[in-house]
């Protein structure tokens, strides 16, 4: 399908609204047109038969045809054009009826013909081109017929034109302004809508970016805060939560030895290894400079599962074999602290993370490159229980 013009889009978008107006106006105009049969008969009794025949046999079937055409799946422009054609024809028929009268009253009645001009311009307000051609045609038809009316004189024609010409010009101008204004309003609405959509998309992107660490692509502290809020707002007492805090060992020495840019690469590699080991629903966050935090909440987050994940990540980082000359292992290693707790209605993350941090501190103190657990989120140092790496296998 080729590119759609603004006008075509306007016609499609406004189809239903314009068709509703078109139906209503057609009913109203048909009512006036056919009820004027009585006016014909009252003012000009000599054209009774002519009026009944032409209105009843020509215009009535055409009106039914017009309503049927409105139901067809064609563009609103075509439907408006059909209405314009029928109204134009009704003006011709009206002239033909009045031309059959010998009564002089026809001259004062003929002024009613200007109503057709108003209908084709400001009442129906069809697209300007349709309005222009149809009203010019009706104008020509009226002022051709006027000479053949019974008792018509040039004085009468000029008198009539003094009203007919301004009606034609001014109502056409009104139609033009209305058409242009409707299109302008539509375009304004379209661009406002487009701007709103663009703004919403940009806001969504900003919101997403603001929760992501640019170096590693992991969730940042802001994202973590949102997760903490969600957790407080949707607590589920059945669930457990595991906090796994990871710190790269001797990272200052790494930076000093290999440079900051290599340090960044190392952090990216470690972050990828952590993400690969995690599930899509885990929260994996860059917690600080060379610190990472994993939060996993589900029904089966037992200590042994959390320890297994922590150990898997520790081994994965070892297997990356990122050189780290200044250390005993000669490669980059991590220390990990774990805390698992039941997720109650008033669960807060900070005591949990603090407990994991205490376990991490233990891992560092005991020589690094190991996993430790502390399941006391109240951070009571007396109840600190730590497991050594060898205990993990027992726990599993
Ligand atoms: N390259 C790089 N370095 C960072 C970044 N953020 C923090 N760091 C560095 O990470 C290092 C952390 O050093 P420390 O807190 O002393 O810890 P450490 O040297 O890893 O020692 P331990 O944690 O005790 O094993 C500092 O030198 C920071 O400059 C970062 O985004 N990129």
From TrEMBL:
A Pfam family per the record: GGDEF
Signal sequence residues: none
Keywords: Membrane, Transmembrane, Transmembrane helix
Entry superkingdom: Bacteria
Record field: catalytic activity: 2 GTP = 3',3'-c-di-GMP + 2 diphosphate
Ranges where the record places region Disordered: 371-396
Stretches assigned to the GGDEF domain: 239-376
Transmembrane segments: 24-45, 51-69, 81-100, 106-125, 132-149
SMART domains, per database record: GGDEF
EC number: 2.7.7.65
Composition bias, Polar residues: 385-396
Alphabetical list of Gene3D superfamilies matching this protein: 3.30.70.270
Stated name of the protein: diguanylate cyclase
Classification of source organism: Bacteria, Pseudomonadati, Pseudomonadota, Gammaproteobacteria, Oceanospirillales
């Amino acid at each position: 399908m080729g590119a759609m013009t603004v006008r075509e889009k306007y016609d499609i978008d406004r189809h239903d609204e314009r068709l509703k107006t078109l139906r209503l106006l057609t009913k109203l105009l048909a009512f006036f047109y056919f009820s004027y049969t009585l006016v014909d008969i009252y003012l000009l009794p000599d054209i009774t038969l002519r009026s009944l025949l032409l209105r009843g046999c020509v215009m009535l079937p055409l009106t039914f045809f017009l309503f049927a055409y409105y139901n067809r799946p064609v563009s609103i422009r075509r439907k408006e054009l059909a209405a314009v054609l029928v109204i134009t024809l009704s003006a011709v028929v009206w002239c033909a009826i009045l031309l059959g009268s010998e009564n002089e009253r026809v001259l004062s009645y003929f002024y009613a013909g200007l109503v057709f001009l108003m209908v084709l311009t400001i009442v129906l307000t069809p697209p300007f081109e349709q309005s222009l051609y149809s009203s010019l045609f009706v104008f020509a038809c009226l002022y051709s017929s006027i000479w053949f009316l019974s008792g018509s004189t040039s004085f009468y024609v000029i008198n009539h034109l003094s009203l007919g010409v301004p009606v034609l010009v001014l109502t056409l101008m009104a139609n033009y302004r209305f058409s242009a204004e409707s299109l302008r309003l539509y375009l304004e609405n379209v661009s406002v809508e487009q701007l709103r959509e663009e703004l919403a998309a940009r806001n969504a992107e900003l919101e997403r970016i603001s929760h992501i660490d640019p170096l590693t692509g992991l969730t940042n502290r802001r994202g973590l805060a949102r997760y903490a809020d969600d957790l407080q707002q949707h607590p589920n007492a059945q669930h457990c939560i595991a906090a796994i805090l990871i710190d790269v060992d001797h990272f200052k020495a790494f930076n000093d030895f290999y440079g900051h840019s290599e340090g960044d690469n190392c952090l990216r590699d470690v972050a990828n290894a952590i993400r690969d080991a995690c599930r899509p629903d885990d929260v994996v966050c860059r917690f600080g400079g060379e610190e990472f935090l994993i939060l996993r909440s589900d029904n089966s987050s037992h200590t042994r599962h959390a320890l297994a994940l922590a150990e898997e990540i520790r081994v994965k980082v070892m297997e990356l074999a990122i050189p780290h000359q200044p250390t005993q292992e000669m490669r980059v290693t991590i220390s990990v602290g774990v805390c698992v707790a039941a997720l109650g209605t008033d669960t807060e993350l900070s005591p949990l993370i603090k407990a994991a941090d205490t376990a991490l501190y233990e891992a560092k103190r005991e020589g690094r490159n190991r996993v430790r657990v502390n399941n006391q989120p109240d951070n009571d140092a007396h109840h600190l229980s730590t497991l050594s790496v060898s205990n993990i296998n027992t726990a599993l």
